[in-house]
Amino acid sequence: MNAQKTGDWWVENLLRPVLVAAMLVCLIAPLTRLFEVLFxxxxxxxxxxxxxxxxxxxxxxxxxxxxxxxxGWGYLGSRAAEALVLxxxxxxxxxxxxxxxxxxxxALRWQTDPGSFFDGMMVYISxxxxxxxxxxxxxxxxxxxxxxxxxxxKPPEDKTSIQYYLWLISPKPARSRQEELERLASFFVWxxxxxxxxxxxxxxxxxxxxxxxxxxxLYFALGxxxxxxxxxxxxxxxxxxxxxxxxxxxxRRWLLWGLVFLVGVASVALLLPASYAAGPIRALLSLFGSIxxxxxxxxxxxxxxxxxxxxxxxxxxxxxxxxxxxxxxxGTPAAxxxxxxxxxxxxxxxxxxxxxxxxxILSIVGYAFYRFVRDRLGPWAESEQAEGTWWxxxxxxxxxLWRWFQDWRRGVQAQLRQRRIPRVREPSVSLSPFRFIxxxxxxxxxxxxxxxxxxxxxxxxxxxxxxxxxxxxEYQAELDRSFPELEPDLEGLTAAFVGARYSRQxxxxxxxxxxxxxxxxxxxxxxRRRRQA
Amino acid sequence: MGRLLPFLILLMAVAFFTRVEFFFYLLYALFGIFxxxxxxAQRSVRAVALQRKHEERLFWGxxxxxxxxxxxxxxxxxxxxxxxDGVPLxxxxxxxxxxxxxxxPHERQVLSYTLRxxxxxxxxLGPLVTLGxxxxxxxTYKVPHxxxxxxxxxxxxxxxxxxxxxxxxxxGTLPSRQRLFEDPxxxxxxxxxxxxDSLRRMDWKTSARVGxxxxxxxxxxxxxxxxxxxxxxxxxxxxxxxxxxTERGIVVAASLATHLIEKRQAVSLATNGRDPLQDPxxxxxxxxxxxxxxxxxxxxxxQVLDLLARIERTGEDEAVPFLxxxxxxxxxxxxxxxxxxxxxxxxxxxxDTLLTLRRRGLLxxxxxxxxxxxxxxxxxxxxxxxxxxxxxxSEQDLDMWR
Lengths: 533, 402
Hints:
heterodimer, A: 3 domains, disordered N terminus, B: alpha/beta, Immunoglobulin-like, 3 domains, four-stranded antiparallel β-sheet
């Protein structure tokens, strides 16, 4: 297979395997912590470290086996041997915390009782370790597909063979790459779900989940980073297959901006409220009431200030008047009194945060509802069956409302953009019949336009007005029918006008002079027609 | 998000069940990554402004660069942006030019490719489509840019040195062998006064200096005001020579117009071909024709070449009959003008019309574009009415004017 590397070598061969191995370790961290609690005296740190390196080994060895084209039973045998070696190594690694003396003592015992090698603790952690290790192999296959740019191999010579048929129906690399990414995303989501549930159960029955914050956080952070990188690989491979030139620093920018984005979102998330002091309706009503109260207070202050200034003015005119009371500036809105609010300044802030909390939660719930309705009623609402039903009408009305809003928004944006553009104004030419026009002062372009508009006006006087929606060419066709003798002149005048009005080509003086002669002939003919009428 | 949504709901349930703040933060972060990621992609892709910079007019065989300026007008970086610019096959080596770039806030990049004027015509570049997406690949945003950039490829222009077209128009700028018409602005010298000489021709200063009456001698010149009429009615073209003959006729018209306008002569052009810029034939105006009035100057030459670049052969029963065009479009030509009639072959009634033109004081020249076994006969008949018939079957046939 003609293999071509995509992306950065370090990303493919080091960063991604490390990310995946770390994710897998995060997955087994809650159970490790649980074992530590259940089996007092057992330190699971070595297990996590070993799990990380074992996962890394599993991913990298997958590449080696694929490169050597070891498949089928050979692959299975190789992996079984590897599993055995890893379990033995894991057992030996446990002595990093137990000490060499313990190892020596146990080794003597294994000689007499080999079954003691697999004691109860070893069985438990093996039950955790092996699924994790198998998971690393599963992810490794997906990563391998993402990494290598796979071109279709050469077709077999014999076009009637089964091999040729298999070659024909073999999927294209890009398609399988996207599928692999989907598989990786599924693994991430399912792993996350398991991690969450295990953490929740542990939190409920054994110990607080706060101690598992780091592995959970790491799992999701690494998972998002991995999916982002995987998505980039799929895109990159697709572009490379299409031979699209790719900006050289795009991979670095992707990494950097992706990191900034993730850190930024995480930082903002940390600033958001994570607790609630009241229900959603009361919190939102409270927030609304506070905002309304603050607005009223500001209005009252403005009104008081005006009265105060007026009274101050009057007191200077009439010294016998009492000096007015100075208005006080509006402060932060005080929380309305009630049993649900905590007293003091913190009450308002607390209710605002509670309202914000519920807004966030309700937005997620709202999105879930939207998906629910869209997936079930979306295709139906577009079908003919929906027409005439109240639900179909409602959806149609909502859709039209949304479209109206979008149109209105675009219109406003367009107007704002238009206002920002400085207008380049041509020297204005007033063609009002009540003002004197000096043709000498007009530029050739303005002259041509003047001749045309003058013709238009005279034609209207002669009974051939130009329709509001008529283009110059349509108007010319209409005039041609009424004044066949003027057809060449009208054609020349129209063409010159269209050029002067709509094109950016310069209009020369000799052209304007030529148009003038046309205009004069047309003018005379129109005048004759007018007199005859 | 299809996969993430059930997970978020589970996470929300776990968060409410355990009431652990960390799970809420996680919920916000994951939901934020999804929502803000999409918003980022949407806003950034829409903030990209594109502009093509290129020559709008190409001569046949020219290669001109097109610069595509891409500007990120927003404050958000564009993570990735795929640009796909469509180019007509007649203008480029491939139908699409594609790139993948990323843009920092307010970054500007310039990409370029080359247009090759391989075939005369009026082309629209594009569509230019940009495609961008978010970090996790949950969605992509496609923005078409309908900028309507146009490119005109002029027809091939064959240089002609000495046309030798006949003209009877006096007071032009081309030297003439006919001594009848003299240009008072082009003084060739002086000679002694002879009885009968007009007093207007007297050169008083020279007369005073030499002590004898002298009169000015002027150069004889002629104006070669030429009307070019091109027949592009499909009915007059045999199918086997359709394309070649059409293009050859347009090359002849373009070469003649270029040559004459460069000699500062006025040229008009009329054809019954279809101009794609004009409205399509309607019920009211079922037949179309395009024409440019008699003018001179480079601006006019550009208009002539523009029209010849755009013009196409009309479909059956769509064109104005060529003889009608010939009769009507020569009305505005002044006496003595040359009329170059370019048509694939002799159509019925052509010589009657040419004779009428001859009687009106115009000088028609017949240019036939198809090989005709009876051309000798046609040439003889043309000679009988005082016109010249030329057959241009290949570009080498234009050598007679070189």
